[in-house]
Amino acid sequence: MDSFMQCAIEEAKKGLAEGGIPIGSVLVRNGQIVSRGHNMRVQENDPLAHAEIVCIRNSGRLGNYSDTILYSTLMPCYLCAGAAVQFGIKKVIVGESENFPGGPEFMREHGIEVTDLGICECIEMMKRFIKDRPDLWYEDIGK
Amino acid sequence: MDSFMQCAIEEAKKGLAEGGIPIGSVLVRNGQIVSRGHNMRVQENDPLAHAEIVCIRNSGRLGNYSDTILYSTLMPCYLCAGAAVQFGIKKVIVGESENFPGGPEFMREHGIEVTDLGICECIEMMKRFIKDRPDLWYEDIGK
Questions:
Q1: Which residues are listed as membrane-spanning (chains A, B) (predicted)?
Q2: CA distance B115 to A65
Q3: ipTM score of the complex?
Q4: Domain range for residue B41?
Q5: Do B85 and A65 touch (CB under 8 A)?
Q6: Less Cβ crowding at N or C end of chain B, within 10 Å?
Q7: CB contact at 8 A, A22 and A10
Q8: pLDDT tens across B42-74, in order?
Q9: Between A and B, how many CB-CB pairs are < 8 A?
């Protein structure tokens, strides 16, 4: 696993430690981390504070995202996939999509290269969370 | 024009008066406004603070959005369309799509009823803004 995904996993763990949803994200440009973030819905009481949204928000106003890579521990939902499409991000690398299918086809239709690493640690972390806190999880995905 | 769209236009004008991008949004449930908001990218230095995102954020954590209607002065971009799809909003009513085509087909594919009112006031307000501040506008749509 590359070190950027490791950072995304660290972010997810920070979120869990804060009583939040363990999803982490990192934005990378030219081999360097531009910003990182984790889901903040519980912490900020904001239904839209998904990990990828928080991460992109933390990047400030880059203006152009076409040379960035978005890492996430979980396959982006339509909100976050929509952000990637709208901002012209060309590459999305995810930890897993077993616990949530997200919108990979939507991203691919818009020219984004989506790679699913199927990382055991990501799968297990999310599976445990969904089992422990189904209330939070199902609220998060708009159900 | 119904009064909810009038409120969205008011929000857009507030944004313009603050030196921001004149796009406004209102979320409605059972004939009542749940929340309102306008684009805050300039004001909050947040590239993701699109009007619809701010408006949904201002609603707190409703949990279920299936009986809400999202109004916006402009056709939602993929970020905001993705939010509507992910949160299960069933109806989106927009002021115009002349100045920006957005993602109506993506929303319709996911079962959202999209109505474009083609309101002159919305078209003119946005057209003037794009002419006056092309720098801000083209940054906003991720170009």
A1: none
A2: 31
A3: 0.90
A4: 3-141
A5: no
A6: C
A7: no
A8: 999 999 999 999 999 999 888 889 999 999 999
A9: 91
Contact assignment for A86 to B63 by CB distance below 8 Å:
no
Amino acid letter, B120: C
Give the phi and the psi of residue A35 in degrees, each rounded to 5: -160, 160
Report yes or no: A86 at the B interface, CB cutoff 8 Å.
yes
Residue of A nearest to B106 (CA): A106
Catalytic status, residue B124: no
Mean of pLDDT over chain B = 94
| Chain-chain contact of B61 with A78 (C-beta, under 8 angstroms) | no
pLDDT band at A138 (very low <50, low <70, confident <90, very high): confident
| B100 part of contact set with chain A, CB < 8 Å | no
Model pLDDT for residues B68-86, shown as the tens digit of each residue: 999 999 999 999 999 999 9
A139 touches B: beta carbon within 8 Å: yes
Give me the phi and psi of A54, to 5 degrees please. -65, -40
Looking up residue A88, the CATH number of its domain turns out to be 3.40.140.10
SS3 of chain A: helix, strand, coil, percent, to 5:
45, 20, 40
Gap from B108 CA to chain A (nearest CA, Å): 14
* Helix, strand, or coil (residue A75): coil
Q: What is the pTM of this model?
A: 0.93
Number of domain units in chain A: 1
Q: B130-139 contacts: CB < 8 A, separation 24 or more?
A: B130/B99, B136/B21, B136/B41, B136/B42, B137/B21, B139/A61, B139/A63, B139/B41, B139/B47
